[in-house]
Amino acid sequence: xxxxxxxxxxxxxxxxxxxxxxxxxxxxxxxxxxxxxxxxxxxxxxxxxxxxxxxxxxxxxxxxxxxxxxxxxxxxxxxxxxxxxxxxxxxxxxxxxxxxxxxxxxxxxxxxxxxxxxxxxxxxxxxxxxxxxxxxxxxxxxxxxxxxxxxxxxxxxxxxxx
Length: 162
Description:
Layout: H1 3-31, E1 36-38, H2 40-44, E2 54-60, E3 66-67, E4 73-79, E5 84-90, E6 102-110, E7 113-121, H3 130-143
Parallel strand pairs: 1-2, 5-7
Antiparallel strand pairs: 2-4, 2-6, 3-4, 4-5, 6-7
């Protein structure tokens, strides 16, 4: 083999190996930070892994919010129309958090309770997170009902009903 070709081959092999290692390391690092979304029905059915950071979302069930008298602990339930998931959170809730409105929680499932590390509320009256709207639409299609969930005044696409 000609020395110039051999040098080019070594350069190409080095680039391929280096790129493969770099891509592998990036994929490994990103896999630790992936936040998968699960609707409450999948959480209740046990389809979500326990002890792994995930996202869940739905509408806050009216009448389910219970605040602790002694600290910042809050317990509430979220629903996608077919199942309710109890959520426990310690901290200050967003100003827009209220019963009957869409919310997304980040945290882990432990012993059938979602232990939230972060609670996100919808940002205006016309917004439902896309994952929540899709999960609610799927739950509605599975049950064969036209469930409007607990989100008062919202249709399944997150638009305001009139």
